[in-house]
Amino acid sequence: MKYDLIVVGGGPGGSTAAREAAAGGARVLLLDKAAFPRDKPCGGGVNLRSARLLPFDLSPVVERVITGVHFSHRTRRPFTRRYPGVLTYMTQRARLDAFLVEQAIAAGVELREREPVRAIETNGAVTVRARAGTYTAPLVIGADGANGVTARLAGMPAPRDLAVAIEGNIRFPGGVPELWRETLALDLGDIPGGYGWLFPKGDHVNVGVGGWKYLTGSFRPKLDALTRAYGLDPAAITDLRGHHLPVRRPGAPVTHGRLLLAGDAAGLVDPLSGEGIYAAIASGQMAARHALAAMDSPTLDLTGYARELERVLGPELADSSALQDIFNLMPPVYVELLRRSPQLWHWLCRIIRGDETYSTLMRRAGPFALLINSASWLSRNSPLLGRRTGHPAWFGR
Ligand SMILES: Cc1cc2nc3c(=O)[nH]c(=O)nc-3n(C[C@H](O)[C@H](O)[C@H](O)COP(=O)(O)OP(=O)(O)OC[C@H]3O[C@@H](n4cnc5c(N)ncnc54)[C@H](O)[C@@H]3O)c2cc1C
User: How many domains are there within the chain?
Assistant: First the structure.
């Protein structure tokens, strides 16, 4: 069988790219090392912005609709803020990803599971060698996640793995406590470069902490303390696992010859929130569009993909990173403002919902944006501020 496109990895980035390319008329092969449904370390928070990108309804796999956030600072002085509508959705990755792959198959994608890719050779077309078979196509989209192989096999630099998160589940056979049915929890200020969370699902809650990678050793005790602060027993945590949050260096390549990278493989995780599902879907869509266009042109030029990614997601990632630096400078001030300022809560809700982006917010900030960017620059370049924020630039990268 001849394919127009091979997509490696069936997470949100790969399944979206495969589905959209097939819907555009391409013969698409989707390879994944796992068999669906498969789980993936993730909080399973899907914001409205991500859901809005998809041409179908996610309700079959939405387990909770969140309308409030329970905040705390280092597990202390908690308070809850409510929004008069939907803030975000909660799902389980095993269900979400299997659902997205089903949509891809319905669009005509051929799926091969338990088929880890082991080598990629470009010789005119691209030859992809996997466990059980060898496949050829003019183009490949690498969407194989944070620990994927496509970028490395193609000789591209890996994205920065500065941050890591761990998560696990606590089950409630009798039902999730009332308190958490429509409310998620965020604990801020305890781990530089990240935060702690509780995300409610159908019959369990997901608890986790994330932050700079060099702090990983402190994550388990912090997760236990957080769990206790939420009135839960850390001994009840099951399925505990961790994973990288790859963050792209500005300008890092996302194409190489006939290969396009999407999602975590391209390092598109939002530095401030740690979310990556939105960027995986958005970049999957872009990659599919540019792959389809390249198939129809004699030059197979993929530079448009890099340009669009840089234009659409680049400023968002840069602004998120600057806001993360600001937050790390003074978490208690930020949490106190959230407690007291309806205005700040309003803007945060607009960001969570996707009604606003970091970039539109920075534009609204006017001259303050300059201040934010200057403080961000200083926290990376001044030992005094860098040490205060715990930025990895000053702690062994
Ligand atoms: C603890 C944690 C919590 C998170 N919580 C959230 C959250 O609540 N909301 C959010 O938006 N983001 C969250 N993220 C980030 C989010 O999980 C990722 O950004 C997202 O999964 C990226 O999607 P992807 O399609 O690029 O890659 P993935 O979802 O990682 O999918 C990659 C796929 O490639 C396959 N694969 C890997 N190697 C190979 C190979 N060699 N051959 C074939 N297939 C291969 C894998 O089996 C997998 O199916 C979290 C991350 C972590 C670590």
Answer: 3
